[in-house]
């Protein structure tokens, strides 16, 4: 196991050396990404989830340099899963938000929601589906009271764990701030909130 960790760390160093060097038409980012993927394999074998998460953050950066926003968003999404496994909820949420920003930029959220609704047709009529959709509806209306009511109703039936509670409280606080602003000042940033719910609640159905 120790050999795999050492191997992974060596691959990360090589990737960083590539990134700090000169490359032709983005070649250094492709080369670094290749090395980082190999490092991920090493760290996964040892179940070093914190190291895996850190490497995926570097991978996301490489994809962004290459303007591969979808791949970067996926890397941040995967990173969130690994940080969640290590109970690093703050970083997990941060990565999920970055993924959401990128999905918004490439306009993939509606497609993502539609895909999962089709894929999980048996999920649509369940409480687990109505809950995130109810939250998203409350956010669209800037209705903090409705959001809170929906959250309390679900929590009274199925207790939310620390991870989900932290995410939803963060959304609620953002909603409170936006509810106080005029419609003209809301801007595009506001819509990151409902889209985050779609990613969190639909794309990660297994959490519910």
Average pLDDT number: 74
The CATH H-level superfamily of the largest domain is Tetratricopeptide repeat domain
What is the SS-derived class?
A: mainly alpha
Top CATH class of the largest domain:
Mainly Alpha
Number of strands: 0
CATH fold-level label of the largest domain: Serine Threonine Protein Phosphatase 5, Tetratricopeptide repeat
Task: Report the helical percentage.
Answer: over 70%
Major beta-sheet overview = none
State the end-to-end CA separation.
33 Å
Q: Radius of gyration from the CA trace? A: 19 Å
Number of helices: 11
Family: Belongs to the SNAP family.
GO molecular function, one term: soluble NSF attachment protein activity
Protein name: Alpha-soluble NSF attachment protein
Keywords: Protein transport, Transport
What attributes does this structure have?
11 helices; NSF_attach; Alpha-soluble NSF attachment protein; soluble NSF attachment protein activity; syntaxin binding; 2 domains; 208 residues; single chain; mainly alpha; TPR-like_helical_dom_sf
């Amino acid at each position: 196991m120790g050999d795999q960790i050492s191997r992974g760390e060596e691959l990360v160093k090589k990737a960083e050396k590539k990134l700090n060097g000169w490359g032709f038409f983005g070649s250094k980012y492709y080369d670094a990404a290749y090395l980082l993927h190999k490092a991920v394999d090493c760290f996964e074998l040892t179940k070093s989830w914190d190291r895996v998460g850190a490497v995926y953050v570097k991978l996301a950066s490489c994809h962004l340099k290459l303007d591969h926003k979808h791949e970067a968003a996926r890397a941040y999404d995967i990173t969130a899963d690994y940080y969640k496994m290590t109970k690093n909820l703050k970083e997990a949420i941060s990565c999920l938000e970055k993924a959401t920003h990128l999905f918004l930029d490439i306009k993939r959220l509606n497609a993502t929601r539609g895909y999962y609704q089709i894929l999980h047709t048996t999920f649509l009529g369940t409480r687990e589906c109505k809950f995130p959709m109810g939250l998203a509806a409350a956010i669209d209306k800037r209705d903090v009271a409705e959001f809170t009511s929906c959250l309390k109703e679900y929590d009274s039936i199925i207790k939310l764990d620390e991870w989900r509670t932290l995410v939803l409280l963060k959304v609620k606080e953002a909603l409170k701030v936006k509810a106080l602003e005029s419609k003209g000042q809301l801007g595009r940033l506001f819509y990151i909130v409902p889209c985050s719910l779609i990613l969190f609640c639909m794309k990660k159905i297994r959490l519910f």
